[in-house]
């Protein structure tokens, strides 16, 4: 067992019904769909002592997995917290009922209430349908919490006030944003708003900053840092498991350049042990824009966050 807790980013499939402007999908290889036996193994590998939360996301769209209902049922009653990130397009009432109570938090990614902006960002998705599903989720979900992840691209930011206003007026107030547009280990060439400006926007509009959601506690961060040869806090806080069951060196390794073994042969603790001994990877890390995410100012913000919230409520 590892000496600290991490977040797991779990991919049910790398197939996607969207072609988002901020996702370098051309880097993704062949389509992979997690098998039932692989998922059963993943579930067995997860335990609350090692895992703070499992986020079902990866590089595809979990709601289009052919066994969505079965997989959701397999999570029911599990003591580990499972969350899901979805673009919401396929989340109809039947699927929403399936996840109610088996998923702790549903996060729907949404770029803009302005249709032209949405269509240019969430390419191939029908904004009206996504909106209908979000409103249906807000009404239908009793046990599962709902949050919205707002897209941090330059193209979306000028419509942010009206997008926020629209959600607030419908009683949806858990709005989050990443302070970084990940360049996916240098593979995304899209123009970026600076992290400082994004943090300012997050503060200005009272959004929840997403990087806080991956950190179980300050003490876990300290232990992660002491245990890993490579002091990249965003990487060390997360273990990505691909749809084929491979543990990844880094969740930003969209091209799957570096695997660490498979859930069939290796426990999470063994995968972490293996990763702890690795240094930075020139292919992935040289062009990556997230290593400095938790700079001293952000660490101070994390400390303030935990001070005000109390560590116990994070567990
Ligand atoms: C990669 S998607 C996968 C799950 C699902 N298909 C979706 O769109 O929500 C997971 C989350 O990452 C966000 N995302 C995608 N590309 C990003 C990037 N380059 N930087 C930061 N977040 C990104 C998406 O908006 C979404 O909230």
From TrEMBL:
MF term (GO), any: iron-sulfur cluster binding
Keyword Mitochondrion in annotation: no
Keyword Repeat carried by entry: no
InterPro entries recorded: Aldolase_TIM (IPR013785), Radical_SAM_PqqE_MftC-like (IPR050377), rSAM (IPR007197), rSAM_sf (IPR058240)
CDD domains named among the record's database cross-references: Radical_SAM, SPASM
Keyword annotations of the record: Iron, Iron-sulfur, Metal-binding, S-adenosyl-L-methionine
Cofactor names: [4Fe-4S] cluster
Domain called Radical SAM core: residue spans: 11-150
Protein name: Radical SAM protein
Species, as recorded: Micavibrio aeruginosavorus
């Amino acid at each position: 067992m590892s000496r600290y807790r991490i977040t797991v980013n779990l991919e049910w499939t790398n197939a996607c019904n969207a072609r988002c402007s901020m996702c370098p999908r051309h880097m993704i290889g062949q389509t992979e769909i997690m098998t039932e036996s692989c998922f059963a193994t993943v579930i067995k590998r997860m335990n609350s002592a090692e895992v703070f939360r499992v986020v079902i996301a990866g590089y595809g769209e979990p709601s289009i997995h052919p066994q969505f209902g079965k997989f959701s049922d397999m999570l029911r009653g599990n003591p580990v917290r499972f969350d899901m990130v979805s673009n919401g397009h396929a989340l109809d009432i039947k699927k929403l009922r399936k996840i109610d109570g088996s998923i702790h938090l549903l996060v729907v990614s949404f770029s803009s209430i302005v249709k032209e902006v949405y269509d240019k960002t969430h390419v191939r998705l029908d904004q009206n349908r996504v909106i209908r599903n979000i409103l249906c989720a807000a009404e239908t979900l009793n046990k599962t919490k709902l949050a919205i992840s707002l897209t941090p691209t330059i193209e979306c930011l000028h419509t942010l006030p009206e997008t926020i206003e629209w959600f607030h007026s419908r009683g949806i107030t858990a709005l989050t944003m990443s302070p970084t547009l990940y360049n996916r280990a240098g593979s995304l060439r899209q123009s970026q708003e600076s992290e400082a400006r994004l943090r300012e926007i997050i503060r200005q509009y009272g959004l929840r900053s997403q990087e806080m959601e991956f950190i179980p506690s300050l003490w876990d961060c300290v232990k992660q840092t002491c245990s890993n040869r490579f002091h990249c806090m965003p990487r060390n806080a997360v273990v990505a498991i691909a749809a084929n069951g491979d543990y990844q060196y880094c969740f930003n390794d969209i091209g799957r350049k570096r695997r660490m073994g498979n859930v069939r042969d290796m426990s999470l603790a063994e995968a972490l042990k293996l990763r702890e001994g690795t240094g930075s990877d020139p292919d992935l890390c040289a062009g990556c824009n997230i290593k400095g995410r938790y700079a001293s100012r952000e660490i101070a913000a994390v400390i303030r966050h935990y001070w005000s919230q109390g560590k116990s409520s994070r567990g």
